Give the backbone structure.
Amino acid sequence: MFEHNMLVRVYYADTDAFGIVYHANYLRFCEMARTESLRELGIGLPYLMTEYGIQFAVVTVTLTYHKSARLDDQLLIVSTISHIGRASVTYKQDIYLTDRQGDLLCSVEIKLVTVDQNMRPCALPEALKMEIV
Amino acid sequence: MFEHNMLVRVYYADTDAFGIVYHANYLRFCEMARTESLRELGIGLPYLMTEYGIQFAVVTVTLTYHKSARLDDQLLIVSTISHIGRASVTYKQDIYLTDRQGDLLCSVEIKLVTVDQNMRPCALPEALKMEIV
Amino acid sequence: MFEHNMLVRVYYADTDAFGIVYHANYLRFCEMARTESLRELGIGLPYLMTEYGIQFAVVTVTLTYHKSARLDDQLLIVSTISHIGRASVTYKQDIYLTDRQGDLLCSVEIKLVTVDQNMRPCALPEALKMEIV
Amino acid sequence: MFEHNMLVRVYYADTDAFGIVYHANYLRFCEMARTESLRELGIGLPYLMTEYGIQFAVVTVTLTYHKSARLDDQLLIVSTISHIGRASVTYKQDIYLTDRQGDLLCSVEIKLVTVDQNMRPCALPEALKMEIV
């Protein structure tokens, strides 16, 4: 399966009074990386809706924080799809620091289910499955 | 015209690596205060849509920052409507510190226009105007 | 052990284009509830630093999303401490909808470790342990 | 004076239940663009602090919203410095849509003052002034 790499910069907006990236913002970075990984496959978010009538909704998230990122750090987000189910896709996303020694900062596992535009669960279209495998 | 007061606490999520409230978050606090000021008048956001078919969209904002708020500070947001037009409402919102000597932190002026559910400008319903004056 | 309840309102700032609360924002709500649960015990965040020289840093998070919250919904966050270790505190936080039938929206488990002001791990002070048990 | 261009993508995290970019997030986009415009001149944020002992603090903001951006839109942020004072820098930042007809979405004017690490106002160092003019 494919692996997608994305660079993200840490701005003031991402940090907190502790001087580090606020823990919830890693989920925002991960959303950005998943969206770009789909775009690289030719699957934009509007296309998901117009072509397949579906969206992805997050159902479970596991985050493990190893080290902290700071203001102006550059992060590398490595995203892979670890499992594709009948109506779900599970991502493994690791966030590294590019500036110091490439430390692993945060490991994320996110399971998303396919839903229709009324947020009702629906099967992952076979054609879409082909595109993302 | 009425004056609405709302207390808000500063959490890590609101701050940045400078140790202060991130400047954009005052707009978030102001949105909260405007929503609660309407609720106090019996006008919930869903009611605006179901009863009048409108929402408010921000068109201009002026922010002046006087002092900084820090983690765990308690803020007082004082909201007044300074002008009601044919299709707009203008708010004056001042944010004070409650903990130290009541310093004025930030002054905001926000003009909102009434739009329908397709984001098209529309007149402010007379009945609604009555409710908020 | 104690149980802490906190009400939170959903504003535009908390929602996304799907019409629901953006998944990362539940972590923000949980931070607010943990901070208020400590305050109820007389432990403000500045007090943690000045009295004990420590802060809490998030190390692992598990989120399970059951249903979606929408604009203007009122949420109830129920927080309990499920485990206290030598240098860690683990919270269980459940987020319910108060408006409809009290649906469980999201279950969160968060492990925090005590760190000094340089972000180095340190033991949870016994006196503090007494206060939060 | 220089002009800096930056592209930004709109993700779910940036949008609200109205289906558009939440109004406060344009300030976040503008902060990103100012930081990158300084980096292009060789002035990273840590450098500002280590070399000159200063940071920039926002004092006034004026935002005018013309049109709305939506999920997955690509935005172009055009930043110019409109005024440099003894202890301040004023930016003009215009945000355009790249995807449709290049509509102007939002115009921002932001005045920042130079402060030392204790948030006390201080003069803009002459050497730095040379670098950003």
Notes: Chain B has a mean pLDDT of 94. Chain B has one domain: 3-132.
